[in-house]
Amino acid sequence: MADEIETGFERVRRLAEAAGLPETSVGTSYGTPALLVKGKSFVRMKDAETLVVMCALEEKEMLMELDPSLFFETDHYKGWPAMLVRLSKIDDGSLTQRLIAAWREKVPKRLAARFGTAGPR
Fold first, then answer.
1. Domain of 75: which CATH number?
2. Number of domains observed in the structure of the chain
3. Does residue 118 lie in a domain region?
4. pLDDT digit string (tens) for 35-73?
5. Which of 15, 25, 70, 102 has its CA at 20 to 30 Å from residue 86's CA atom?
6. Could you tell me if residue 6 is inside a domain?
7. What percentage of the chain has pLDDT greater than the value 90?
8. Is the residue at 18 inside a domain?
9. What's the average model confidence in pLDDT over 67-81?
10. How far lies 3's CA from each of 6, 38, 47, 77, 118, in Å?
11. Residue 57 sits in which domain range?
12. pTM assigned to the model
């Protein structure tokens, strides 16, 4: 199972790196692979097929309603600014957008300003 988690996580890591997110590092959160910005987790693997991404509650509700085949939550995440993403269903472009949005949720304002608005949001 560790190989399966690593495979999904390697895709996430590769897309985050290609997006050029400053100060991003690899770590762990709740015992699973995670991406961090300035030591704060913004995405982590839940299991081999599921990614936990930070997001604003309003955005979370909208995305889950628009495409429940990609975005969902369990009771554990109700009321929290995080949602679950089915990695096998999401394309690279949409996943990259989610990674950038999650990074923006956790990044300090000065660093976000340096990243600018050039990247997709």
1. 3.90.1150.30
2. 1
3. no
4. 999 999 999 999 999 999 999 999 999 999 999 999 999
5. 25
6. yes
7. 80
8. yes
9. 96
10. 5, 27, 11, 26, 35
11. 2-111
12. 0.86
